[in-house]
Amino acid sequence: MSSFMLRRRASRGGSWQLLCPNPEAKSRFFPNLLFSTLSESQHRNVNQPSNPQNLRNPIERRNILDSGISSFSHNTSKTPSGSLQNPTFSSSIFVSGSKPLALSSGNAASGKNISGCGVLGLPTVKSLYSGRGRFGLVCLFGTQAAVEPSTCDGLTVDRIIASEWPILDEYESDWKSHAAAIAQSIHLIKKRLQWKKLLVRLDMLSAEVNKPDLWNDPVHAGKISREHGSLLGKMKEVQTFERELLEHVDMVKLAREENDTELESESMNALLNMRRTSKEKEIEALLAGEQDPCSCYIEVQAGAGGTESNDWAAMVMQMYKMWAQRRGYNMTLVDEMPGEIAGIKRATIKVDGEYAFGYAKAEVGVHRLVRISPFDSNKRRHTSFAAVAVTPILGDASEHVQINESDLRIERFRSGGAGGQHANTTDSAVRIVHIPTGITATCQNERSQHQNKASAMAVIQSRVDQLEMARQNKMNAQYSQSLTDITWGSQIRSYVLQPYRMVKDLRTNYEVSDPDSVLEGDLDGFILSYLSACLDKDEDDN
Amino acid sequence: MKLSFSPRLSPFLMPSLFTNLHRSVCSASSIPPPPTTPKPQTPLFLRPPTHSATTSDLQKWHDWANTLASSVGSTFVDLDNGPDSTLLRRELKWLMEDAIEETKNVDNNDGSVRLRVEIEELYMLWKQRVEERRPFQYVVGCEHWRDLVLCVEEGVLIPRPETELIVDLVGDAVLGNEGLREGLWADLGTGSGAIAIGIARVLGSGGRVIATDLSPTAVGVAAFNVQRYGLQDIVELRQGSWFGPLKDVEGKLSGFVSNPPYIPSDNIAGLQAEVGRHEPRVALDGGVNGMDDLLHLCKGAAFMLKPGGFFAFETNGEEQCKYLVEYMENDAGGSFCNLNIVADFAGINRFVTGFRR
């Protein structure tokens, strides 16, 4: 975790202006705004100044603002009278947001808005219009980035960060310290989610989702609407977290004004809880990739070098088994080819659990060991290599690449003799070759041939899927993840047992002087520092 | 009848005792079947975990067993293509899975584990496995076959991995052929009931399967397995030799499958110890050239199957496959069509399939 603290401190005052491109705009356009936790009811593209024409008359605008307020906590007692009481406001937005084009068809005003977007070349559906009658306000938007939530006195998350309030220990009951810590987490979370990219992508997806012919291709449509839902959920979660922070800050201030100690301690506790959960959210945000929540296969292959290298491969495999156990993942051995004297030539395990792939993907590459080999009678120092591959297991069958039966060659592995009734064996290992790609998978760990075949087939499926994803990511460079750039052969980490003791990640320079703990599966430091470094790199690239 | 756990029985006496038993049943097949089939033994994994052992005792047993497995090396492979140490060690892992209530609890705090057999018996079982070459499936009392766990015991042929494919062949045959899927099928010489249960699950609720076996032990074990998979309404068991119990369904079968004994008698003596010493000879020995029963079944297929009916037989390999196809094409008077030879995953031509004209 120490790396996070550093990162957070380093990022303070860094790119916050970028995230808040127009911090003054809000107050200029909405001078009568008391609470600006209204991001959901207004939307402006990040790159475009607020467009007041979108609000067709001041009354409507007032309604929008008011209804935004009404979704606010009841404790902010200054709600203007006559506001639309619409407690389900925020959720209804998301529902309507999924098909704004359909809603706006036949509406000349909104049609204009949309074409206006087109002229500006923005891929956003950001028309804002209100309906009539008892349906009240209908709000359409793609992104909601521009107007940030703020407290009554205009304090925003970015301003909290900019204030550089000292962050004290958790037990110090100082709301400013809590708020600053949470704000920094939010900043980090946004950064890790690639907030700007996410909003742009969400706009694109919203436009796509609203195309009337979307469902002509149900597979594509399913994919699009799933991604749309997932990004929307992430965005909403962060925004809710932001709003919550500011609400609690308001509450603390209010409580102090009115000398309400009970309310004050309540709000202080709420802030403290937020501060604690924000740590989890930071880590969750590291794993925002589409396949990150999947289970995965981890394959370890020994490099050249015989027994010493086979032993190293077995140590690496053991490290992952123990890591999986520590994380509470379910681990099953799929395939193992033992070395002649010790260790393994190759092995594959299946790691089942939430975010198994998200974490394990950080381990892809070549791992190097330097030690005095116990297999060398002359006690010389040896360098060995083991390669690690990680493949996500897509949870959704509809995303699988269709594999033709005729493209497969299925072989009984290590069989000999007449077989059939002649032989009694519990060995029913099966090897499957996917002929077009040359991908091979073996499984001998199950107790029936049928199950071995099914296991090997599942490995083939996920590798073929991974190939296809890599191909698509190349095509879709706009939203590709830098992780896919890693080649399987590149050296990522060095483990030195003699003459000194150290494990060092060559990508992040993260290092640990206790190789034993690492080999016992204490890998999270390496994994998290790598994942956050990856996102830093992405951010820098922009 | 826990013969397998009795230490006083000589390992060589045990299987021959079984074989003799079944040979006598075999020769007496003309007399009506006994009113009740023998009650099958409960496989290890289904026994209640009423025993316990300390972790250290279990560890001691495991170390001992592991050493015994390692001492084998490739001796058995060289001798008769038997198991090597790697395979034995994997079996040891599976034995633990079956015998210990939950393998994960091995290192729990109170230092004991719950077992489905006494630890002394574990010693005995592993000794039988390695020293007497008792098949692993008889040791644990079950065989994992396709997605099934079938109970087996001495006197019943252990279903082979190759045979799994017959179920796939049936699956292909009934695909888009509702007439076949909802018809009456037969599995002759069902043994543990493997094929019958496998195809019953492929056919679904519309189909019906009659499974026969000469051996009352086999019928008892098959009935147990059918029951375990809740298929008693679909699979009917009948005891008797080949077509003997099927008089009432002549010409009515939509499908007919069998894995009959096909090993030439001369080869029996040289079989892998697990097979030759422990499995029932009646399920293996197919006569001088191994074709006695296959040819009998072929002849029967012509009058048992209705037109359009499907059959699949397992054979000893290429030679028997070719012989059968030739026989059916030339000598069976054109009763069959679409004859096909299908290889197993080891690349050996293993199955003959076809349809009744």
Main-sheet strand order of chain A equals 2-3-1-5-4-9-10-11
What would the principal axes of the Cα set say about the shape of chain A?
A: globular
Stretches of chain B where pLDDT is under 50 for at least 5 consecutive residues are 1-35
Largest sheet of chain A: 8 strands, mixed
InterPro entries (chain A): PCRF, Pep_chain_release_fac_I, Pep_chain_release_fac_I_sf, PrfB
Protein name (chain A): Peptide chain release factor 1-like
Pfam families (chain A): PCRF, RF-1
GO cellular component, one term (chain A): cytoplasm
What key phrases describe this protein's structure?
heterodimer, A: alpha+beta, Methane Monooxygenase Hydroxylase, Chain G, domain 1, Alpha-Beta Plaits, eight-stranded mixed beta sheet, three-stranded antiparallel beta sheet, B: 357 residues, alpha/beta, Rossmann fold, 2 domains, two-stranded antiparallel sheet, 40% helix, globular, protein biosynthesis (chain A), PCRF (chain A), Peptide chain release factor 1-like (chain A)
